[in-house]
Amino acid sequence: MTAMPTIIKADGSSEVFDPACLVRSLRRAGAGAHTAERIAEVITAGVKPGSSSRAVYTRAFALLRKEARPVAARYALRRALFELGPSGHPFEDFVSHLYSAEGWHVETRKIIQGHCVPHEVDFYATNKDGTEHIAAELKYHNDPGYKTDLKAALYVKSRFDDIFQCDPTVRSCPIERGLLVTNTKFTTEAIAYAECVGVELLGWGYPVGNSLFMHMSRALVYPITSLTGMTRAEKNMLIAEGTISVDQILHDRRRLNVLRLAPDQVGDLLAEADGLLSLPPLSQDPVTD
Predict the structure, then answer these.
(1) Helices marked H in 18-146
(2) Is 106 exposed, middle or buried (0-12, 13-18, 19+ CB in 10 A)?
(3) Banded model confidence at residue 144, pLDDT cuts 50, 70, 90
(4) Please, which pLDDT band fits residue 172 given cuts at 50, 70 and 90?
């Protein structure tokens, strides 16, 4: 059997290319068995030693897009989150919309008085019956190779410690839970520290079974940048007008008016959006690198 070449991952590390792993990623995104196997065969034939995982992904995405755009859109979700930038505000708005879809009442960039000083939290949410209050610090990054590290977890812990120092005889206690939310993976150090001190983490691939992707899959809330039928400039125009998720254009197609598209282009976009939201929820993240 011919040895598989070594490829370079987004974080700079290397690993042996595994066609079976690519098949699993494609299948998790919703591709049929035959399609996933055929795409993996084409990719495997072209992978050279030193190829990047990004090149493998880009090629697989292009082939999958020809087969089924909604499936390709879901396969591209991690990259789509990176396209919400460069600032972190669209990501904050996206996470807020996601939690709203899950039934929370959400406020963004809210000032909460701590024991020592006031703090602006990126995200503040209350459940339907008002019995649970959570706040989150959101860390957004544009670099696929970046991992949210220990420094971020330490910073969040210190801020929430001040907010949690609450004397109910003096003032109401504003939150019961504090989260660190990111669009990237976490370093092992950040996870170990957060688990030790009780800081909740939510990111790509973590926690297992309840990651950021799993929240999106269950709520059927996906970033508008995941749609494959628009240019980057068109996606940025929608984001600038406050459209940050796919479900928003299905609920109100007038949001697409800013793009001045032909009727058939609008129809294609709405068909892709509907197809994406019609895909069955997944039990695992579709792409892990």
Answers:
(1) 19-29, 33-46, 53-67, 69-75, 77-82, 89-101
(2) buried
(3) confident
(4) low
> What is the amino acid identity at position 270?
L
Closest by Cα among 260, 218, 269 to 69: 269
> Using CA atoms, how far apart are residues 182 and 211, in angstroms rounded to an integer?
10
Assess contact for 4 and 19: CB atoms under 8 A.
yes
Model pTM? 0.88
SS3 sequence of 36-64: HHHHHHHHHHHCCCCCEHHHHHHHHHHHH
Residue 169 has pLDDT above 90, yes or no: no
- How does residue 115 score in pLDDT terms, banded at 50, 70 and 90? confident
Q: In what order do the strands lie in the sheet with 105-113?
A: 105-113, 118-126, 133-139, 177-182, 200-202
* Helix count and strand count (H, E) for the chain: 12, 9
The domains located in the chain, with CATH, are: 6-67 (no CATH), 78-289 (3.40.1350.10)
Per DSSP, what are the bridge partners of residue 113? 118
Q: Which two tokens stand for residue 202?
A: 């939510």
Tokens read off for 153: 């977890």
80 pLDDT above the threshold of 60: yes
> In this predicted model, what pLDDT tens digit does every residue of 28-55 receive, in sequence order?
888 999 999 999 999 999 888 888 988 9
Give DSSP secondary structure letters for 157-203.
HHHHHHHH---TTTS----SEEEEEESSEE-HHHHHHHHHHT-EEEB
Euclidean distance between CA atoms 189 and 153, whole angstroms? 9
Pairing mode, strands 133-139 and 118-126 = antiparallel
